[in-house]
Write a structure and sequence with these properties.
Blueprint lengths: L2 E6 L7 H9 L4 E4 L8 E5 L2 E5 L12 E4 L4 E2 L1 H13 L7 E4 L3 E2 L2 H14 L11 H9 L6 H4 L2 H22 L7 H15 L3 E2 L1 H10 L4 E8 L19 H8 L8 E7 L2 E3 L12 H9 L12 E3 L1 E2 H11 L3 E5 L9 E10 L2 E3 L6 H6 L1 E8 L16 H14 L3 E5 L7 E2 L14
Parallel strand pairs: 1-10, 1-11, 2-5, 2-10, 5-7, 6-8, 7-9, 11-15, 14-16, 15-19
Antiparallel strand pairs: 3-4, 12-13, 16-17, 16-18, 19-20
Helix pairs in contact: 3-4, 6-7
Bound molecules: inosinic acid.
The site of inosinic acid has 19 residues, from helix 4 and strand 10.
Length: about 425
């Protein structure tokens, strides 16, 4: 009865969508547990290319129950657009359910976020401006509006009137902007509630029942470990808990229910936006990684900063998530490098350290200590088993597993679903790890 979490080990963009899509075909329940419309999973399959923001990737498997968990914040218009697009392209959404405890993103969240980011000046977080942070802030300060309230017009009216009055004070008195009108806002959200009501239910009860019945359950991570509010590179983090512990809270399963944690690791490290990146390569090698890997933000087109694989961060990510197996993506991008490096430690002010400092200024001063491995200079994209990988590629994969402290059970060698190396099993089936 596997209950599997798929989590990104670094800052996101590790290729989770691809791994989730691959695994979701085998699952009976797939649930999103954190984040909101600030993320995007690109899924390419027989029906074309889809970019999912809120709906779990299991939606392409007609036998799979797809849940948006209580830990997610829902932007109703984004969700309705996604439902409409999937339906128009022949994907049924009849198996979609939304937690009645999931919080709703409202227009004032977007205004507050924009204004606060502006006022942060040089300390701006560089958020996606989807209102995610303020929506989670309202959840914490007990001012949130949940799906359970959204679908009850009378309750929504009372609650929204109370919260909006206070938000409008902030909007007018602090930001000097015009207030939001209650009537049109209420009407718009009442209508959203009416349209979404058929999907809203107690998803926690459903998932606990599925886990008890021995069904295969996949908890689909969004964002990644180093963006976790508690465990990430604060303050350059998101406002939820993308880590495995957050998965339990975000769907209403107890920690003891988890049986496998799949950590998604890219074969090299990338980061978008500001913040320290110890293994960043600013010269020709970094440029080559970016070009070969098409490392540009999917929505903004911003170039991602690229560097060699950072095993210090990777080990931290695997430890805090309790990763039981690693899905190593994009190995093929390294095919043409005569040598490849892995940061095994940092040097900080003359000392060797192997852990992630909380102080970001200290992290920025960390110099990577590299281990150099020979490249393989052979295409890997046709390999389907570990034995078919060139010996040096295999050595690299094994070394990543050793350094990160978990076996590598899946290796991505190209963009299509089929271009994955395994030893004949899925990560929870065992018997296929290389370590
Ligand atoms: P927010 O989640 O919009 O509040 O943004 C906070 C930080 O998380 C910013 O640095 C974003 O770029 C980052 N972030 C949020 N979602 C994702 C994601 O799906 N992939 C990568 N970075 C993300």
């Amino acid at each position: 009865m596997p209950v599997i979490v798929v989590v990104g080990v670094y800052w996101g963009d590790e290729g989770k969508g691809r791994v989730v899509d691959l695994l979701a075909r085998e699952c009976q329940v797939v649930a999103r547990y954190a984040g909101g419309a600030n993320t995007g999973h690109t899924v390419i399959n027989d029906l074309g290319e889809f970019r999912l923001k809120l709906i779990p990737a299991g939606i392409f498997n007609p036998d799979c129950l797809c849940l948006i968990g209580n830990g997610v914040v829902v932007t109703p218009q984004v969700l309705l657009d996604e439902i409409a697009e999937l339906t128009a392209r022949g994907v049924a959404v009849t198996n979609l359910r939304i937690s009645d405890r999931a919080h709703v993103v409202l227009p004032y969240h977007l205004i507050i976020e924009q204004q606060e980011e502006l006022r942060r000046g040089p300390f701006a977080i560089g958020t996606t401006l989807n209102g995610i942070g303020p929506a989670y802030g309202d959840k914490t300060s007990r001012d949130g509006i949940r799906m359970a309230e959204l679908i009850q017009p009378a309750v929504l009216r009372e609650r929204l009137a109370n919260v909006l009055a206070r938000k409008n004070e902030l909007i007018t008195r602090v930001y000097g902007l015009p207030p939001l009108d209650f009537d049109p806002l209420y009407e718009q959200y009442r209508a959203y509630g009416e349209r979404l009501a058929p999907y809203v239910t107690d998803t926690g009860a459903l998932i606990r029942q599925a886990a008890r019945a021995g069904k295969t359950v996949l908890l689909e991570g969004a964002q990644a470990t180093l963006l976790d509010l508690d465990l990430g590179t604060y303050p350059y983090v998101t406002s939820s808990h993308p880590t495995a512990a957050g998965a339990c809270l975000g769907v209403g399963l107890p920690p003891s229910a988890l049986t496998h944690v799949v950590g998604v690791v890219k074969a090299y490290t990338t980061r978008v936006g500001s913040g320290p990146l110890p293994t960043e390569l600013v010269g020709a090698v970094g440029e080559r990684l970016r070009e070969l890997g098409h490392e540009y933000g999917t929505r903004t087109g911003r170039p991602r900063r690229c560097g060699w694989l950072d095993a210090v961060l990777g080990r931290y990510g695997c430890e805090v998530n309790g990763v039981t197996s690693i899905a190593l993506t994009r190995l093929d991008i390294l095919d043409t490098f005569p040598e490849v490096k892995i940061a095994v430690a940092y040097e900080l002010d003359g000392r060797r350290i192997e852990t992630l400092p909380a102080d970001l200024e200290a992290l920025a001063r960390c110099q990577p200590v590299y281990e150099t491995l020979p490249g393989w200079l052979t295409p890997t994209s046709a390999a389907r088993t570990f034995e078919e990988l060139p010996p040096n590629a295999r050595r690299y994969v094994e070394r990543v597993g050793e350094l990160l402290g978990a076996p590598v059970s899946l290796v991505g060698v190209g963009p299509s679903r089929l271009q994955a190396v395994t030893n004949g099993g899925l990560p929870w089936e065992g018997g296929h790890a290389v370590q």
